[in-house]
Amino acid sequence: MQKIQNNKAWLLVLPVLVLVAFSAVVPLMTVVNYAFNDTFGNNQFFWAGLEWFDEMVHSDRLHGALGRQVLFSAIILAIEVPLGIFVALNMPKQSFWASFCLVVMALPLLIPFNVVGTIWQIFGRTDIGLLGHSLAALGVDYNYTNDPIDAWATVIVMDVWHWTSLVALLCYAGLQSIPQAYYQAAKIDQASRWAVFRYIELPKMKGVLLIAILLRFMDSFMIYTEPFVVTGGGPGNATTFLSIDLVKMAVGQFDLGPAAAFSLMYFLVIMLVSWVFYTVMTNLDKAEAGQ
């Protein structure tokens, strides 16, 4: 007897699909329209073809912003992933202190992006900021508004402070799923601490590490609010990442055609790199599972 499928549950999903259509699909189609057309106002458009895309591909401005963005994301991943693993390994596994540490680690994640930027903007000032004033008292010439290296250091430390907790909490969840029998067997075999991490803990964290790397890459590659509040993209263009450059082009200069082409290329780059990350790490998991 053939089973009758009931598709009425789709009616519950329909309102969500309608909201997604209006909040995502319609704006995306508007961006696509501007990317392939030129306009002089009055809602009159003229076909431009791939002109804006060609302009962006050969734009030194875009190349510079892309280079800064890739460097920033690489530094962030290189710091936050190992640091998050280290923090997770040293967090208490049970008792009151485990709950306390989880709450403390989650606090930076609850702070809005613009508030994080404002906190570090004040924190780094040499006149009223604790960090800036302390460094000045130690004789360190620190000024994130004038020195590109100081600006980069401030933005990186700010992002590490804000988002390392996410990696640590995900790794902690992966560690909690490891049965105690594994540790007992390792103790009987007199396995070293490195061996326990390499052969027991790290394999159990691979799934959550994949999620952590993907989330942190996408977030860092699209970062806007925090560096914009702290440095405004300066000094000069030192911290003008892709998102900041895109906003300046679209809102500041009102170059809607190039900005639309820029945003579509930006979106495709994020999707492509995320797909490569996911495919490579998934294949590694499958290869190790088949051994």
TrEMBL record:
Q: Where are the transmembrane segments?
A: 12-36, 70-89, 96-123, 151-175, 207-225, 259-278
Where does the ABC transmembrane type-1 domain lie? Answer: 66-277
- Tell me which Gene Ontology terms the entry assigns under biological process: transmembrane transport
**Keyword Ribonucleoprotein tagged:** no
Q: Which CDD domains match?
A: TM_PBP2 (cd06261)
Choose one Gene Ontology CC annotation of this protein and give it: plasma membrane
Which membrane topology term applies here?
Multi-pass membrane protein
What InterPro entries does this protein's entry cite?
Answer: MetI-like, MetI-like_sf, Sugar_ABC_transporter
Subcellular localization(s) per the UniProt record: Cell membrane
Signal peptide region = none
Main subcellular localization, coarse class? Answer: membrane
The keyword Endoplasmic reticulum appears for this protein: no
Q: Which UniProt keywords apply?
A: Membrane, Transmembrane, Transmembrane helix, Transport
Q: Which family does it belong to?
A: Belongs to the binding-protein-dependent transport system permease family.
- Write down what this protein is called: ABC transporter permease subunit
The protein's organism comes out as Paracoccus aestuariivivens
